[in-house]
Amino acid sequence: MCKVKELFSRILLFQQELITFISTFKIMSENILQLTDVAVFQGENLVLNDISLEIKKGEFVYLIGKTGSGKSSLMKTLYGDLPLREGSGNIVDFDLKTLREKDIPYLRRKLGVVFQDFKLLPDRNVNNNLLFVLKATGWKDTSLMTAKIEEVLDKVGMKTKGFKFPHELSGGEQQRIAIARALLNDPDLILADEPTGNLDPQTSVEIMKVLQDINQNGRTILMATHDYALILKYPSKTLKCDGNKVFEVVQRAI
User: What average pLDDT does the segment 171-181 reach?
Assistant: First the structure.
């Protein structure tokens, strides 16, 4: 009888441990980005300190703050341009603390990065800009590359602009191409660093609609911005860089 009770107790304990493990694994799998006690440096200068945050799959998250508050430095840390020296961080299943130089291209294939100044290659047309990225990330099949380019251009409303060179496009059109480029490798997370910073208000709204559509189709987006009008128009979870810290704010406190 005692042995039966002991066996039953062990089964109950095992069940509890299994439930705890499954719950922990589920939480980890839901988080596409998790930072704990992170410090961000530019050279030897401490930019942000004691950052702990998480972003779940499918979220749209703003990162706000004044110029020089550390938004871009945090973004650079997330895509491997700045090393993580203090704290722990995991992004799209990559450990930022142990990230090696040779791992960075593989990390960036799972991220889509959109810059304020577009960063399109001026000496080639839109199709060849996108083709360059596909070839650089290991694509070989010409027909698959052509189909992928058509797919991402269609998603941003630029399917007929593939023959155009960057200088022939407006700022809003160039940013749409930059977003299309970010979608090429079906990223788990899009990092948009001030994507509307160089655009007029109406064009900014158009770009936000594109990003909103992408998010509603299941993509996770972290967008650094100082355009508070857009946040009021398209409210979502908001993180703020201020006083060397990063913290979540509510709409009325922005």
Answer: 95
Tokens coding 242: 């201020």
pLDDT value at position 30? 86
Of 78, 70, 81, nearest to 47 (Cα)? 70
Question: What pTM did the predictor assign?
Answer: 0.84
pLDDT at 26 over 50: no
Structural contact between residues 220 and 231, judged by C-beta atoms closer than 8 angstroms? no
Nearest to 211 by CA among 248, 237, 241, 180: 180
DSSP 8-state class, residue 221: E
Name the pLDDT band for 20 (thresholds 50, 70, 90): very low
Alpha-carbon torsion, ordered 114, 119, 124, 130, to 10 deg? -20
Return the residue matching tokens 């006083």: 243
Q: Residues 6 or more apart from 18 whose CB is under 8 A from it?
A: none
- How many Å apart are CA 102 and CA 99, to the nearest integer? 8
